[in-house]
């Protein structure tokens, strides 16, 4: 049977026409999708700028469906979920990004950092730690180290916090010596005496001008019964850290009385009080003054240099009034009025406390409490 070539002549044009129509349909569909994805993306940005996060999330989800290969849309969506507090959805988005084989190295590191932030915000500290440790040697390492430092401080893992502080200090971006000294002192509080003394002396070497290591060392020496050594430590600290004289004054006076160095301590404290009047220094001087009238004179001399309701209240407590029967009521009112003035206040967040803290209980900042009372600020 002979082949009829006329079918071939008809078939070729038909096949060409069908192929052309199919290609046009594909191009049309592609143009529609390309128009839809940017449109949804820009709509999401508009919602985000107007602080309409719910609508922005819906728009970004639509954009991701239209263009599932675009990593930027995933990052935007994951960050929005984290800001909304929907940490499980943020984790799924970033884990999906990390599971993709076509993701380049920079985006992979970025997704790993975003995943760590998701865990951190969700309070899953162990998973956040694992995710942050994987960022070593990446461009996100500095941020990862800071986040790890916050985790170890929060969990009071002072040894590992110290390791991170040393790494950050070695990078030279900021001085972490004072922070490291605090970590060593925190470890010393839980250690046996010999180990505790070694740790606080190491803290002194790390931060020679920081007051806490000297105060902790003096406390250890006092607990061991070596009041003379404690007095010498505190006297030296008064010269190296004069800004902390308010914290040094009382233990200095107590050690001085215990080891027979009251006159030397009185001279040191009096020089500090004359140079910069301070409530705690004045209290330490009064503690060392055997003569009651001379102690009351110290209150008057302080008031001449520095007006103080706290000092006035203390002076008036020993004063006889014309209507003596009203003295208790007046003194009670004064004592109530000066209570807020006798507190310490965090310079970072304003949190007030009756005792001095090295780390603020409110904002967790270190060394944010001045060694002076509210009235003196």
UniProtKB/TrEMBL annotation:
Its annotated compartments are: Cell inner membrane
Q: Which GO terms describe its cellular component?
A: cytoplasmic side of plasma membrane
- Membrane topology, from the record: Single-pass membrane protein
* Keywords assigned: Cell inner membrane, Cell membrane, Iron, Membrane, Metal-binding, Repeat, TPR repeat, Transmembrane, Transmembrane helix
Q: Where's the LapB rubredoxin metal binding domain? A: 344-368
List ligand-binding residues for Fe cation: 346, 349, 360, 363
HAMAP family of this UniProt entry? LPS_assembly_LapB
UniProt lists the gene as: lapB
Per the UniProt topology annotation, the Cytoplasmic ranges are: 24-377
For this entry, list what GO says about its biological process. Answer: lipopolysaccharide metabolic process; regulation of lipid biosynthetic process
Q: Which Pfam families match?
A: TPR_7 (PF13176), Zn_ribbon_LapB (PF18073)
- Protein known as: Lipopolysaccharide assembly protein B
Cite the SUPFAM superfamilies for this sequence: TPR-like
């Amino acid at each position: 049977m002979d082949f009829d070539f006329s079918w071939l002549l008809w078939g070729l044009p038909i096949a060409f026409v069908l192929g052309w129509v199919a290609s046009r349909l594909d191009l049309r569909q592609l143009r529609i999708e390309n128009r839809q994805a940017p449109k949804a993306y820009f709509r999401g940005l508009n919602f985000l700028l107007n602080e309409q996060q719910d609508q922005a999330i819906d728009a970004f989800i639509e954009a991701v469906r239209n263009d599932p290969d675009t990593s930027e849309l995933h990052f935007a969506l994951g960050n929005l979920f984290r800001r909304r507090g929907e940490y499980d959805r943020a984790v799924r988005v970033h884990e999906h990004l990390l599971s993709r084989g076509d993701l380049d190295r920079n985006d992979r590191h970025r997704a790993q950092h975003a995943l760590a932030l998701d865990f951190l915000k969700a309070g899953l500290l162990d998973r956040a730690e694992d995710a942050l440790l994987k960022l070593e040697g990446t461009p996100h390492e500095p941020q990862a180290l800071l986040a790890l430092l916050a985790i170890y401080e929060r969990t009071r893992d002072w040894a590992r916090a110290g390791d991170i502080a040393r790494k950050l200090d070695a990078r030279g971006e900021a001085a972490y010596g004072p922070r490291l000294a605090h970590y060593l002192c925190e470890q010393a509080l839980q250690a046996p005496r010999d180990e505790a003394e070694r740790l606080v002396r190491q803290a002194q070497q790390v931060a020679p001008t920081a007051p806490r290591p000297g105060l902790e060392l003096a406390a250890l020496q006092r607990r061991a019964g070596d009041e003379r050594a404690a007095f010498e430590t505190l006297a030296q600290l008064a010269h190296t850290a004069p800004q902390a004289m308010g914290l040094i004054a009382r233990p200095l006076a107590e050690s001085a009385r215990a080891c027979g160095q009251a006159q030397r301590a009185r001279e040191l404290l009096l020089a500090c009080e004359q140079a910069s009047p301070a409530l705690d220094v004045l209290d330490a001087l009064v503690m060392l003054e055997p003569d009651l009238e001379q102690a009351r004179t110290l209150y008057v001399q302080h008031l001449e240099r520095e007006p103080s309701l706290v000092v006035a209240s203390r002076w008036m407590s020993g004063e006889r009034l014309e209507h003596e029967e009203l003295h208790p009521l007046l003194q009670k009112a004064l004592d109530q009025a000066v209570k807020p003035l006798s507190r310490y206040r965090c310079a970072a967040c304003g949190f007030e406390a009756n005792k001095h803290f090295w780390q603020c209980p409110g904002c967790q900042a270190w060394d944010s409490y001045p060694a002076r009372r509210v009235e003196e600020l």
